[in-house]
Write a structure and sequence with these properties.
Elements: H1 9-33, E1 40-41, E2 47-48, H2 50-57, H3 60-76, H4 86-108
Antiparallel strand pairs: 1-2
Helix pairs in contact: 2-3, 3-4
C-alpha cells in the first residue's frame, strides 16, 4: 500500500511560519501604500468612492490628477450654469472638492480631520 508520509507537527509548523510571515508583509505593505480614506461624503449625504479611483488609476497622486482634470473641465466649460440640474452639479463639485482635499492630504501622508470616512 502506498501511503503518503504524514508530516510531523514540527515540520508543518516550520513550513507555515514563512507563509504566515509573507502574508503579514503583504498586508503591511498594502496598508502602508496608502492612508487614503475609502470615501468622502457631503453634508447632504452624497458619497465619492476614493478607493475605487485610486485602484483604477494606480496611486493617490494619479487619482488626484484625474479628479482635478474633471473639475477643471466642468469649470472651463462654464461651470454648473450650463447644466439643466445646476444644484446636482454643485453638489457633485462640492463632493469632488472634498475628494481633492482628501487625496491631497493622503498623498502627503495625513488625512484631513472630519472630511473622510472608510
Amino acid at each position: 500500500m502506498n501511503a503518503l508520509p504524514c508530516p510531523s507537527f514540527s515540520s508543518a509548523r516550520s513550513r507555515r511560519a514563512p507563509v504566515i510571515a509573507a502574508i503579514g508583509l503583504v498586508c503591511v505593505a498594502a496598508h502602508a501604500q496608502t492612508q487614503c480614506p475609502g470615501y468622502v461624503e457631503t453634508d447632504a449625504g452624497s458619497a465619492f468612492d476614493i478607493a475605487s479611483v485610486i485602484r483604477d488609476t494606480g496611486s493617490p497622486q494619479s487619482a488626484l490628477d484625474k479628479v482635478r482634470r474633471a473639475v477643471a473641465k466642468v469649470n472651463a466649460g462654464g461651470g454648473c450654469s450650463i447644466f439643466r440640474d445646476r444644484l446636482a452639479c454643485e453638489e457633485t463639485l462640492t463632493l469632488a472638492n472634498k475628494a481633492i482635499a482628501a487625496l491631497q492630504a493622503c498623498s502627503s501622508g495625513s488625512v484631513p480631520k472630519g472630511s473622510a470616512h472608510g
